[in-house]
Records
---
Amino acid sequence: MKPNRLWSYSMVLLGATLLLMLATTESKKCAFKAIFNFGDSNTDTGGFWAVFPAQSPPHGMTYFKKPVGRATDGRVIVDFLAQAIGLPFLSPYLQSIGSDYRHGANFATLASTVRLPQTSLFVTGVSPFSLDIQLRQMKEFKAKVDELPHKGKTSLPSPDIFGKSLYTFYIGQNDFTGNLARLGISGVKEFLPQVVSQIASTIKEIYALGGRTFWVLNLAPIGCYPAFLVELPHNTSDIDQFGCLISYNDAVVDYNNMLKTTLAKTRKELADANVVYVDTHAVLLELFQHPTSHGLRYGTKACCGYGGGAYNFNHQLYCGNSKHVNGKTVTAKACKDPQNYVSWDGIHVTDAANKLTTYAILNGSYFDPPYPLHHYCNIQPIG
């Protein structure tokens, strides 16, 4: 469900804040004993950098005070969600040291796509861990949980965990944006039905493993992201009053409608499952369009980047990286106040924006169909 007026979003946040403030610190047993997450850099909690260790500061500066494998200054949505239902942060499935999977696992990796990649990470930067691979990892995880003994100290959950878990999906952005500059909107639209079909089939396969509750977060308004405002071809007439790209955001809406329709069909096929469409697009669009209404200052300007100006983004110098320019070394540095920004690095949003988005999700106003999370869990405050 999407609010009809812009000011109603502030009321949603206010309601969510009150709900969290009134939540007791006594942990009521939540119906969800674990979260299993599938996605890309928007919810990666360290999977990609566990495989390709090279992340540098200032990532992680706000909450963790150091790089921890998240493509932002702090926490991602799945971190806040875990906190809210009383679970620890999810360990990345690909992290071999220090992981604890008793309360779920995170299969997301930076640069992941829904479709199988047709190229190498070292050629185009696309992750080899597409949604199909993440699903295979999930199946292997369950097989090991069912097979291994569970007596004594273990970092694995009990075998009955899979029917008591929340399965979250936040993936598809790289399928959409990866070829936009080359193929254009019409070219990308040709394979988007494959994307939503793959998400639906993945849900059905996890259902067969015992999963019953699925949240699918839709695609963000990429036409408001600094990176795409700089990189994607457009005319000035394509910029709306909020500084966002009209045609690209319209294409995102078309994709989200396709995803919503596909999930509705999937819901009918899985009668005893909760297949929920989560409209994060509406939340993020509101934040980009009206940042000051929600305690922020900058919408379409990146906190961490190089070049200054309206967007502070340079595709040749990503956040935290350095290079030689005119005989001297320059670095894409972070701002001192990321809590005032929607965009962290031009491609991902900040800890602050992720927190506001999670507040809105927890309130329940962005679920389709409505999903009363507070009936299943005592929502805990998120700091």
Note: Residues 71 and 246 are 26 Å apart (CA to CA).
---
Amino acid sequence: MDASITNVRNVEIGKHKGNTDQVEAFKSCVDDIFTKVDKLEQRVNEVELFYLTASKRQLNGYKGSSVLKDKERHVASAKKQQQDASRREAAAAKRMQELMRQFGTILRQIMQHKWAGPFLHPVDVEGLGLHDYYEVIDKPMDFSTIKNQMEAKDGTGYKNVREICADVRLVFKNAMKYNDERHDVHVMAKTLLGKFEEKWLQLLPKVAEEEKRREEEEAEAQLDMQLAQEAAHAKMAREISNEVSYDIDFHLEEVREMVIRKCRKMSTEEKRKLGAALSRLSAEDLSKALEIVAQNNPSFQATAEEVDLDIDAQTESTLWRLKFFVKDALEVQGKSSASKGDNTNTTTTATNNNKRKKEICDAIAKTAKKKSKKLPLD
């Protein structure tokens, strides 16, 4: 964008006062900048719309959750999200500790069984002469190892009850795998495994409930984080849009003023043609043209019942802006008339617009007539 503006500034202006091509070239450059701004704003708006609709889609997707149902959601700040996450983690850890405590009760009952002796400590491979034990068993396990890992405080212990359950099963399955079905250790392991599974089934509903709750909390936390990120991006998009709009508008106005300053003065004949062209505008475009006059002339009443527009009294800036506007408006008006053809349906609005147009045009003509009597033509 800066490059475009620099190129505009580097164009040589005013070397040939009678050459309107330079003015048109500047107008074309300004129009190009407007086009780029429009495209950029459209892209920013698309990004913002994407994030807003994505947030709504995510919210709709979680409407069926028992945790999120009928719950009003707000995007929390990053600090609040961290606090909420810490509280959830602490509460979940406390609930899991309670489940582990209940599992510990089951484990003690199994360890106190009269047949639990062979499984309380690691297998004495060398003492028993079990030279092929490590070839058959990939991961040895025993109750003392399980107990130590349950009590570990260095973060290496079990994270949930299912991990403990898997190791308890491994104790018995290792014994059943290594020993023949008729061997006493195999029979003892199979019996104790059956008793363990019965007790585990009693605790399993609580474990499943906690797992479901944890899954929903994680989904909720992930959604909160995603919504916060999307909101931040949407805010950034809005800020970029506002900043770009302000910056571009500032530079465009600067370019326009520079163009007007460099342009030659409009001749009397051109002013006359401009006045005549104004009378050919539609009521809506004519009102816009009067607003252009009012921008540089606060005392000018563009919406008054009777408009007194003196073309000769306008600044060069206003005159050239009017010329550019009138030219474009008449081109659009001509294309519109050609495509629509004759239209016999006259509405009340059209009638009012035509009435207003006639009043303004009569006032312009009246003022021009007064000026022509007072001042000679150039």
Note: Residues 1-18, 62-76, 344-349 have pLDDT under 50 and may be disordered.
